[in-house]
Amino acid sequence: MRISDVAAEAGVTVKAVRYYESQGLLKPRRESNGYRAYDEDDVVVVREVKALLSLGLTAEQTYPFIECLRAGNERADVCPASLTAYRTRIAEVDQRIAELSDLKARLTDLLTDAESWRTNQA
């Protein structure tokens, strides 16, 4: 299978497939003419990486999931390292929520203060 076929089947661009390969997430075979040869397993990997990136994981954080697939598991998220990666991402999201909540509270305080000042000036 050619790179354009993998990209089309996985719903990504050829550039994305090349990026995943440069990150070590894909390891296509080389044909005698030097062309990369992909198979259905590569399509599964690309789909999995795409899904994980959409959840905010970095390419590096997807390694445990891909290794889980390569170990012969039907799902990429059943291995202990994958579960740890999920927990890490959840902790990052929780931290971001806390930061945004703090920001909202500060902005609300500033708005309330500004509205009060404006009312007192009228």
UniProtKB/TrEMBL annotation:
SUPFAM superfamilies: Putative DNA-binding domain. Keywords: Coiled coil, DNA-binding, Transcription, Transcription regulation. Residues 83-110 form a coiled coil. The keyword Heme does not apply. Residues 1-57 form the HTH merR-type domain. GO terms for molecular function: DNA binding; DNA-binding transcription factor activity. InterPro entries: DNA-bd_dom_put_sf (IPR009061), MerR-type_HTH_dom (IPR000551), MerR_fam (IPR047057). This is DNA-binding transcriptional MerR regulator. It comes from Kribbella antiqua.
